[in-house]
């Protein structure tokens, strides 16, 4: 696939078929994505892939986190329960949830470098998957920062940063493109340091 076409025609996918993608194919996508740039070759990305019963449990942990966060505050118990059921039903339709995390470097600059590299990795995952007709939605809902949720998926909030959860599967529907604005680029051609 032409690189420019892949970058511009990839879309975030919100509706998936129930078909599971073979683990070998998923491994191939993540391995390709690991060619992302990363400082000091730290390769800071880690993936926990939830599918089948693992996805059912993950959906429950996400619902529990929403409830703790006060998401349904102000609604009647009945309405709150309906809202949570709706979210759970939506989550259970997604065949794969790839939780992407990294170790937290204690040095802030290195932490930011690692975070940037993991984001480059995620975009590579999106593009590599798109090239195989697999859709991805990059999500960053507040539960990714919920300490209890992080512990419940087997990580340690002190040590690990959850960067995203990628919802993945064969697209049921591909949404239209959202056109981009012109990028504000300033070309600094003239000398600009004031010298006395
Ligand atoms: C850091 C990040 C977090 C995102 N989180 C969400 C999210 O939580 N829910 C969602 O529907 N889309 C999320 N998106 C996807 C954007 O909504 C999507 O990229 C944007 O609407 C443009 O659509 P396109 O990717 O199809 O061009 C996120 C994207 C990024 C980069």
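-> sequence recovered:
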């Amino acid at each position: 696939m032409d690189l420019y076409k892949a970058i511009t025609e990839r879309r975030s996918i919100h509706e998936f078929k129930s078909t599971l993608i073979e683990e070998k194919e998923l491994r191939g996508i993540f391995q390709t994505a690991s060619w992302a740039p990363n400082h000091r070759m730290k390769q800071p990305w880690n993936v926990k892939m939830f599918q089948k019963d693992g996805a059912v449990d993950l959906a429950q942990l996400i619902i529990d986190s929403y409830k703790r966060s006060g998401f349904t505050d102000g609604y009647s118990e009945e309405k709150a329960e309906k809202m949570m059921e709706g979210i759970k039903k939506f989550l259970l339709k997604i065949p794969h949830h790839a939780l992407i995390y990294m170790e937290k470097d204690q040095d802030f600059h290195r932490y930011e470098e690692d975070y940037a590299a993991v984001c480059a990795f995620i975009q590579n995952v999106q593009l590599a998957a798109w090239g195989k007709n697999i859709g991805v939605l990059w999500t960053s809902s507040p539960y990714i920062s919920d300490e209890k949720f992080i512990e419940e998926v087997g990580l340690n909030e002190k040590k690990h940063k959850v960067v995203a959860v990628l919802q993945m599967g064969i697209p049921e529907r591909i949404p239209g493109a959202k056109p981009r604005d012109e990028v504000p680029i300033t070309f600094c051609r003239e000398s600009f340091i004031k010298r006395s």
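The first strand starts at residue 15 and ends at 16.
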